[in-house]
Write a structure and sequence with these properties.
Layout (H helix, E strand, L loop, with lengths): L1 E10 L3 H18 L2 E7 L4 H7 L5 H9 L2 E6 L16 H10 L4 E6 L13 H4 L4 E6 L9 E4 L2 E4 L5 H16 L4 E6 L5 H15 L5 E6 H10 L6 E4 L1 H12 L9 E5 L5 E5 L16 H13 L4 H16 L13 H11 L3
Parallel strand pairs: 1-2, 1-3, 3-12, 5-10, 8-9, 8-10
Antiparallel strand pairs: 4-5, 4-11, 6-7, 11-12
Helix pairs in contact: 1-10, 1-11, 1-12, 6-7, 8-9, 10-11, 11-12
Bound molecules: nicotinamide-adenine-dinucleotide.
The site of nicotinamide-adenine-dinucleotide (NAD) has 22 residues, from helix 4.
Length: 351
Amino acid sequence: MREVNVVVLPGDGIGPEVVAEAIRAVEIVAADAELAITWREELMGGCSIDAHGTALTDDVLAACQAADAVFLGAVGGPKWDTTDPAKPRPEQGLLGLRSGLGLFANLRPVKPLEALWDASPLRRERIAGTDLLVVRELTGGIYFGARGREGDRAFDTCEYTRGEIERVAEVAFEAAARRRAKVTSVDKANVLESSRLWREVVTDIGTRHPGIALDHILVDNAAMQLVNRPSEFDVIVTENMFGDILSDEAAMITGSIGLLPSASLGTGTAGLYEPVHGSAPDIAGKGWSNPMATVLSAAMMLRYSLEAPEAADRLEAAVAQALNEGARSRDLGGELGTTAIGDRLVELLGR
Ligand code: NAD
């Protein structure tokens, strides 16, 4: 048995429900892969504000830094909504984790299953064959640059260094090497100086990966192509704000927020894994949430941090099979609740 340590942060709202179902499924594939996972559950987000007055305590951050991976549900909810800058907010926990763990790349795969093509807002012939991965730079750019306000004037600054671009580009090329060997870099190099540096550096990194095809497109064109020809993308790599917007646009192709996983990676193999959706306070506690995005996030964790790619494949196959056989939660127009979906996955995994 190989032993690994995972910190679990169920968070708020539907977070604990979806995390519990994912852990049930992971336990089965991990045991078969001779992987012994020690789960250490901690508070983060609104629940941590209630208990400790802060969304992320130093102890929890230290536990996350020492772990092989961090597995997160979702945080936030109306109880902690505030516009008072002096009050703690749940998402400060997420930002604290990103910076404390040095997570600079966010990975979001989008691969709509044929059984759900009709749930997409796009016509089936447009989405057929779509299997893409958005790699978004997470710790630089306009969200982190100098900002200010003077009277009626306000500004935000977009800055990137060569090193920041190099490391996220490497993640994208390495991911492409495991996929269909194509990287599309998205920028606004016809206008922005930071984008011109971006294009230069991604091109340089590309020369180190001669087996991977690289093209560059402008962000406005990328926004159009994502709905026009999504199946032509493999890996998309882009800066923080463009990635924020394009990854949400790409997410809509699948037709359900309840199916989208994500990973955030830094240097080394540790990472943070979480569904793309939030804490869904409107359905929290009703037992209606779809745990599949969280299960698929666990699959990414097994693949990228815990070195158990076969176990990851099995989880993904079980989700695909359940959907192909008609298992549908309410977000997909069905009736099955959180536990019923979890039971179905456990059954398909052979228990
Ligand atoms: P949301 O993703 O929580 O919910 C949007 C809609 O999708 C809701 O109708 C919800 O019921 C539905 N939904 C979401 N996940 C679902 C699932 N697994 N199964 C079935 N239906 C699902 O987004 P929101 O309503 O904008 O935000 C709610 C709270 O979550 C806010 O406090 C927000 O700040 C927080 N949030 C947290 C994260 C995170 O933890 N990473 C991300 C986004 C939003």
